[in-house]
Every structure is written in C-alpha cells, then in structure tokens.
Amino acid sequence: MLLWSLLFLCYSLLFVCTEGCRRSSDSSNKITVKVNNETIPENHRLFCTKNETRSLACLNGGSCFAVYIEDRTVQCACYSKYKGRRCEMIDPEIIFDDKETGQKEVAIGLISGFAASIFLFIVFVIIGCVWFIKQKPPGNQYTATRTN
Question: Which of 33, 101, 129, 131 is the one with CA 20 to 30 A from 85?
Fold first, then answer.
C-alpha cells in the first residue's frame, strides 16, 4: 500500500511539474481600445492635454493617456498589434504563428516530463535495491568441520 501511495504522489508531482513548464504568461492585459475624453473609473486613466499629446506623439493609432500617481505619467495605449513606448513596434506575436510557439511549448513539456520520469525511475531503482538488500536473509554460514 505504501508503494502505491508513493507512486501516486510521484505521478501527481510529475503531472504538476510538466504542466507548469508548458504554461506561458497571459497576454490578455493589452489595451485594445482607445481611451476616450473622460476619466475611466475602472483604471483611473485621464485624457492627455494637447501639449502631452504632441510631446508623446503616439504612432499607429495609439491613444495618449495620463495616470496621476504622485506625478502625472503620460503613456500610449496601443492597439493589440502594436507595442512600445509610442506604439512604434509591431507585436511579434502577429508575425510568428501561434502553432510554432505551441509546438515549442509541447516539446518543452515532453522533454521535462521525460527527464522527470527518468529521475523518478532511478530513485525507485535505488529504493528497491536498498529494500531488497535489507530483506535478503543472511547468507548461509557453513561451519567447517574436520573429520579426523
């Protein structure tokens, strides 16, 4: 029974470790809509002044917004296909197909899972050898008797 619970525990840990290796960060926090001319209560963004808009000069349809935390900070809200301080760069996720990154994630998960299972196999072999040696009865001890 102890062996089955140990196997279940190791399998569970192996599953958790390999699932963690395949996960990537969530990119759902990108701003995909323009900020309008009012304060948005959900995130406290303010509309930029004309001078701030000119000085920041957001590109590719990006919108200027300001946030007041200690100081007034001005940034660009980019559409989902652009990024950078002024929305000047194309997002690389658009250029590279998601299938390529998905295949890489699966390969990494398989490699890490295979390595972890080899490690667990070696650990079980060592535990089995130690257990077998402890269970082995002491060797036959022959006493030599001389017949004269």
Answer: 101
Secondary structure (DSSP) of 119-146: HHHHHHHHHHHHHHHHHSPPPP-PPP--
**Res 11: pLDDT:** 67
* pTM (predicted TM-score): 0.36
Q: Which positions of the chain have pLDDT values less than 50?
A: 25-41
> Using CB atoms within 10 A of its CB, is residue 45 exposed (0-12), middle (13-18) or buried (19+)?
buried
The answer to whether 38 and 136 are in contact (CB under 8 A) is no
Q: How many distinct structural domains can be found in the chain?
A: 1
Number of other residues whose CB lies within 10 A of the CB of residue 59: 15
CA dihedral 4, 5, 9, 14 (to 10 degrees): 0
pLDDT in tens, 87-115: 998 887 776 655 555 556 667 777 888 88
Domain assignment present for 35: yes
CATH number of the structural domain spanning residue 34:
2.10.25.10
Position 99 scores a pLDDT of 56
Domain that holds residue 118: 10-21+30-124
Report CA 129 to chain centroid distance, whole Å.
37
